[in-house]
Amino acid sequence: MIWYALLVAAVAGERVAELVVARRNERWSRARRAIVAGDGHYPAMVALHMGLLIGCPLEVWLAGRPFVPALAWPMLAVLVGAQALRWWCIGTLGTRWNTRVIVVPGLPLVARGPYRLLRHPNYVAVVAEGLALPLVHTAWVTAAAFTVLNAAVLCVRIRCENQALAAAEAPVPA
């Protein structure tokens, strides 16, 4: 169980690194008259992700979930792949990546890296991580709860992001 708590802590550390990058990128975007959207759903998204990080070890500990190697190792591989995809997205978007919906008017959509294949590849990473991290140690209740709640949050988030991107792509009035 200690190694699993360390794994969850490593993912939490990765999230802190994301927030550092996001804050820096937010300053860059705001200096360029960025449009900020979706602040209403952001707290729910943060709470959901915190719930994932707390729920994983808590469920393992309280419910005595076993370590099942046949499930754990493939899920660990999915988790590592999700992290790689997330950082590929962050690297591809550069200063335009953020945990919030922040777009700079007049900039074209990014169509390279994973964005040439999918419109929202970072959310593929989020979904994969939300399933894989709990299932590394058979925390199936956490995996199911996160997946259902995340689907609801992502419906709102993707709609909001698509609207913000469409508005930002429109020509800027002189």
From the structure above, extract its key features.
single chain, 174 residues, mainly alpha, two-stranded antiparallel ribbon, 5 helices, 2 strands, 70% helix, elongated
Describe the secondary-structure layout.
Blueprint: H1 2-30, E1 35-37, H2 42-63, H3 69-93, E2 101-103, H4 121-135, H5 140-169
Antiparallel strand pairs: 1-2
Helix pairs in contact: 2-5, 3-4, 4-5
Helix residue percentage:
55-70%
Average pLDDT: 95
Major sheet: 2 strands, antiparallel
Please tally the helical runs, counting DSSP H or I stretches of 4 or more residues.
5
The geometry reads as elongated
* Largest sheet, spatial ordering of strands: 1-2
CA-CA gap between termini? 60 Å
Class based on secondary structure composition and strand pairing: mainly alpha
Topology as H/E string? HEHHEHH
Low-confidence segments: none
Tell me the fraction of residues in β-strands, as a range.
Answer: under 5%
Total E-strand runs? 2
Radius of gyration: 17 Å
